[in-house]
Design brief:
The chain has 359 residues and is mainly α. It is built from 17 helices and no strands.
Length: 359
């Protein structure tokens, strides 16, 4: 599967690069360039956290490991509270008592729950208009409800038993339950809290990047436990190479599926722009947020639910896994897709039964 995907991504590189040479006549060349244009934003959001991961891991070892010993949970699961490409993978591997569970937590769980917690919710709440936030929050709640489908499917492909998956995910399920209750009972305060969380993460990431850069440039040891900035940039660069091909390939897929999506949207009662946004969400959540004002209400709920598991699968997350543990790619793909499709099915059913106008 890894080799097949690499061939598809390589074909995307040829498609986008050739179109760029021809003057971007078909729009694929722009997607090719976008892969490199995203290197800057990715580096800003990822590098500092990756460099700080050893320090955070040492702190968590002292605080959460005793708790994990009581519950039988691998400490690696606490690493999954960060996104896979924002230090979650490195943190899970640093904390892991079992390397297999460390890979599962750092790749599958971080790419679903960690990404939702530290990226999708804070950024979405900040970018989406105030009137659409309740619909987005409802979608997130449904996505979190469907999340176990993805976590269990990904865990089974990692070689964990069903009982192991359930036991190891108890901290994640508990945190998800708290999020569900908060979004249901106090959505306004949760929006404020998520925006504050985003600001704290931004501060931490920027501080880590500053310190790592100064240490690299001057040879000082301000925080000697930090990971070298060159190692973090190597991870970011490997993602950028994959995105050179994955973005043009995803654009081609979007165009090929435009007609089927229109028919499917009619059957589900969701506008084609909402389905297109969800497909785009497999590359990045940011375009989905910008399309929110053009979606119908049912589509806004479904898109929010879809992003919990589905976001960034075909770009940053695939690129990251191919750069660190290619053998984990099937578990990532299966886990995120199962969770995303389960979330859409649940949201369509839920909205149909609970919407006031019988949408």
């Amino acid at each position: 599967m890894n080799q097949i995907l690499m061939i598809i991504i390589s074909a995307g590189v040829l498609l986008g690069g050739t179109d760029r040479l021809l003057g971007n006549k078909y729009g694929y060349g722009d997607k090719f360039e976008e892969g490199f244009r995203l290197l800057g934003p990715m580096a800003l959001s990822m590098t500092g956290m990756i460099c700080l991961t050893p320090i955070i891991a040492d702190f968590l070892r002292q605080t959460v490991v005793p708790f994990c010993q009581l519950t039988g949970t691998d400490p690696a699961m606490f690493g999954s509270l960060l996104a896979i490409d924002m230090g979650g993978y490195q943190l899970a591997k640093e904390l892991a008592a079992d390397s297999r569970t460390g890979s599962y937590a750092g790749i599958v769980v971080s790419a679903i729950f960690g990404c939702t917690l530290v990226f999708t919710i804070p950024v979405g709440m900040g970018m989406i208009s105030r009137k659409d936030r309740p619909l987005f929050a409802r979608g997130i709640m449904l996505g979190l409800t469907a999340m176990p489908a993805g976590l269990l499917a990904g865990g089974l492909l990692c070689g964990l038993s069903l009982a192991e998956c359930i036991r190891q995910n108890l901290p994640v399920f508990s945190a998800a339950l708290l999020l569900l209750l908060g979004l249901w009972k106090i959505p306004g305060k949760m929006v404020t809290g998520f925006c504050a969380l985003a600001s704290c993460i931004r501060f931490l990431v920027t501080a880590g990047l500053m310190i790592a850069a100064v240490q690299s440039l001057c040879g000082w040891s301000i925080l000697p436990e930090m990971a070298p900035i060159r190692d973090a940039m190597e991870v970011v660069s490997s993602i950028g190479v994959v995105m050179l091909g994955s973005l043009p390939a995803a654009e081609l897929l979007r165009r090929l599926l435009n007609a089927p999506f229109t028919r499917l949207g009619t059957r589900l009662g969701i506008s084609p722009v909402s389905l297109t946004a969800m497909l785009t969400g497999l590359v990045s959540a940011l375009p989905v947020f910008s399309l929110y004002s053009d979606m119908d209400e049912k589509g806004k709920v479904a898109a929010g639910a879809f992003l919990v598991s589905g976001t960034s699968l075909l770009a940053a997350h695939t690129g990251f896994v191919l750069g660190v543990e290619p053998d984990m790619l099937p578990a990532l793909l299966c886990g995120k897709l199962c969770g995303a499709f389960a979330a859409v099915i649940l949201s369509v059913k839920f909205y149909g039964e609970n919407s006031p106008a019988g949408s």
